[in-house]
TrEMBL record:
Pfam families: DUF5916. This is DUF5916 domain-containing protein. Residues 233-333 form the DUF5916 domain. The keyword Glycosyltransferase does not apply. Residues 1-22 form the signal peptide.
């Protein structure tokens, strides 16, 4: 694709009009509320709160009548926002599966609210609470995506009655970012009834309304007197660790550490964070994956410091995991091991039409790597309500020796009222280049995406070019030196009449991708089809897929130990069958099986799961297994990955969890046990106990040897002023 054609794509941004939705209300203000968050709503402030008398069904039948009713109340005082949801629903129909913070609530009855605190329809916060009072929150930067690894400091409690359940929420102003004396926030309210799979919303009540579209919100006035105080948050920690290595004579080490995070609001909309001697002892372990490709796997960020404001660093459109210019796991981690961080600084927020995100981190000497400085900066500017441009700069190399810099620019035009028909539409593009200690002159990349993501028709096309010398050292780029074209369409009708009694929605999919090298030769192509893909009104999911594909191996590929596929071109067909039970069931089974040709042989992949929880969600057991059986002329192979997660919760603030993973090919067994006790939001005690075993060749699983364990006790306390 020529540069001139690429620039022509950007010119399309200016051809569309700006549209907005109008839904205004004003919440009462009290100087200092005397509220106990307990789910009872027996204080006088709730009598005078602004009240939304009911939400409207969005899915499956927009505006349809149901036996359910949801009342929402809201007000604020100087330091907090208060919300309450009253969900009229018989007690014996309420569904709960989890009490784990940020747990999977897709099969639970829950309520949620979205806050766009800058009132510009760009970014936002999501706060979600199920009927057990379990909290889930996240950062929004895209109408279809939310980062739920962020944990804000806020309070929520629920209480179940005979014919209703109530959720009471308090969100401190200091948890949010907003402009001082700004007259309004944008807000949207949700309620989900798991038994009947019904979604209720206040504003976005069409089937095309995307779940996290902060433009489809109401204007909530009365927040101009909210104060973040001095905007200072101080979070010291202390941790004690005991490490025992059984491979070197059961050698044990005792280690004590302390550090802190300091947050200061530079302006009401922009804040700075300082972290000193950063520790991640309480961070959840990675979920292991089986890799049958010749490219590296992607693992999401889980560390709290890097998650804070992570949505402001997002760059480009249509990139997915094909290219992430700033991949924060490049900092403080080396080959899966933690690299100590001496200190780090972040600056995040919005001022007017400008959003800013900056990061500086200094790591310590470790694993024969010298201490290294890392710097990342991201700026974005809103030209109109729908059109945004931005730039990204990263500097530093994890090896601590090389110089590396990446610079990039991007632009996106996005609307939820395309051609005045309340349809979603997006067009965007990006360009970037790396420099430093690198060879070659093909160091840039660029691409675009056009997307029409709607309920009946979901279609998109994207193009990405990555130079063979493009090397973003702080990024994730699994296939440099390629040109990637992808796109397709999904037609998703919702049948009515007699057929609608058996099928809620069909998903007929046809998507394709092609990857060429810089010389124009095809390296990969794949067509994914779904001739059968449906969900029933009860929530059962049935799917059959047919996926022909092609792979060209430039070098011999060792897919498993001792099994080497020769270089050359391979054309083969894969098929998949997938069945899932409704998520609202207390006992769920499901899985998928891929089968068919694979390179010059065959491969069968079985992925199954079982999940059980008791009625109040205090106990949850999840078992997942992947078993792959390959049959190739060069040899047969087996890959297995088994995972078991057990959770017991005394209440949403006191949770014990255990996560065990077994990888057959490496013979490694890992168990991560965690106790988290939240005294109050922002004040936590963690107890973490990790076990590791090794199964050696020729030995059974039950004869695995203990290779090490680690115990960590961490206290984290937050003061705000």
């Amino acid at each position: 694709m020529s540069r001139s054609k690429f620039l022509c794509v950007f010119s399309l941004f200016f051809l569309f009009a700006i549209n907005s939705f109008s839904f205004d209300f004003k919440i009462p203000f009290v100087e200092k509320a005397n509220i106990k968050i307990d789910g009872k709503l027996n204080e006088r402030e709730w009598e005078n709160a602004y009240t939304v008398n009911d939400l409207t069904q969005q899915e499956p039948v927009p505006g349809g009548k149901t036996p359910y009713k949801t009342v929402v109340k809201a007000f604020c005082d100087k330091n907090n926002l208060y919300f309450a949801f009253v969900c009229y629903q018989p007690e014996n129909t309420i569904t709960i599966h989890t009490m784990l913070r940020d747990g999977n609530m897709r099969g639970d009855d829950y309520v949620a609210l979205i806050l766009d605190t800058f009132g510009d329809g760009k970014t936002g916060f999501m706060f979600q609470v199920n009927a057990a009072g379990t909290r889930r929150d996240g950062l929004i930067s895209d109408p279809e995506y939310i980062s739920t690894d962020w944990d804000g400091i806020w309070t929520a409690k629920s209480k179940i009655y005979k014919n209703k359940w109530i959720v009471e929420i308090k969100i401190p102003a200091v948890t949010l970012q907003f402009r001082k004396h700004h007259p309004f926030f944008n807000v949207e309210f949700y309620c989900f009834v798991a038994k009947d799979i019904i979604t209720f919303r206040w504003v976005g009540t069409t089937l095309d309304a995307q779940p996290y579209d902060v433009k489809l919100t109401a204007t909530m006035k009365g927040v101009d007197r909210l104060s973040q105080g001095k905007g200072i948050s101080f979070s010291p920690y202390a941790v004690t660790k005991i490490n025992k290595n059984y491979e070197n004579g059961k050698h044990s080490t005792l280690q004590g550490e302390a550090g802190f995070d300091l947050r200061w609001n530079i302006t009401p909309g922009i804040f700075a964070m300082l972290t000193v001697n950063t520790d991640f002892a309480e961070t959840e372990v990675d979920t292991q994956q089986i890799n049958l490709t010749r490219f590296p796997l992607f693992f999401p960020e889980k560390r709290e410091f890097f998650l804070e404001g992570s949505n402001l660093f997002d760059f480009g459109v249509g990139l997915g995991h094909d290219f992430i210019p700033f991949y924060s796991r490049r900092i403080g981690l080396y080959e899966g091991n933690e690299v100590p961080i001496d200190y780090g600084v972040k600056v995040l927020g919005r001022q007017g039409k400008v959003s800013v995100a900056g990061l500086y981190v200094k790591t310590r000497d470790s694993y024969n790597l010298p201490g290294t400085d890392f710097f990342v900066s991201r700026l974005a500017y809103d030209i109109t309500d729908n059109f945004k441009v931005g730039a990204l700069l990263t500097d530093g190399d994890p090896d601590g020796v090389s110089d590396n810099t990446f610079t990039g620019v991007d632009a996106v035009w996005r609307t939820s009222n395309f051609l005045h028909k309340k349809k979603n539409f997006l067009i965007g593009g990006w360009w970037g280049d790396s420099s430093g200690d690198t060879t070659g002159d093909d160091t840039d990349g660029y691409g675009f995406k056009i997307d029409y993501p709607n309920d009946l028709i979901d279609a998109n096309i994207s193009y990405k070019k990555f130079g063979k010398d493009l090397n973003p050292a702080l990024g994730f780029l699994p296939r440099p030196g390629t040109k990637q074209l992808s796109g397709g369409i999904a037609i998703q009708p919702r049948p009515k009449g007699r057929l609608g009694e058996f099928v809620r929605q069909f998903f007929f999919e046809f998507f394709g991708m092609q990857v060429r090298n810089v010389k124009g030769y095809i390296e990969s192509w794949r067509i994914f089809t779904a001739p059968i893909n449906l969900v029933t009104p009860a929530g059962y999911h049935f799917e059959f897929n047919y996926a022909p594909q092609y792979e060209y191996l430039t070098d011999d590929f060792e897919i498993a130990e001792g099994v080497v596929i020769p270089a050359g071109g391979y054309r083969f067909n894969r098929e998949r069958i997938e069945i899932n039970m409704p998520r609202s069931k207390s006992l769920q089974f499901g899985g998928r099986v891929w089968f068919g040709d694979f390179y010059n042989g065959r491969l069968n992949q079985w992925e199954t799961y079982m999940q059980w929880s008791n009625t109040d969600g205090s106990i949850q057991l999840t078992v997942e297994a992947e078993n792959d059986y390959g049959y190739l002329p060069e040899g047969n192979f087996i890959e297995r990955l088994w995972q078991v997660k057990l959770i017991y919760a005394f209440n949403p603030d006191f949770v014990i969890s255990s996560y065990t993973q077994y990888n057959y090919s490496s013979g490694e067994i890992g168990m991560n046990n965690r106790i988290r006790y939240t005294i109050e939001p922002g004040k936590d005690i963690f107890f973490v106990w990790n076990y590791n075993w090794q199964r050696f060749d020729g030995e059974s699983l039950f004869n695995s040897r203990l290779t090490g364990n680690q115990i960590a006790v961490k206290i984290r306390w937050t003061w705000r002023k």
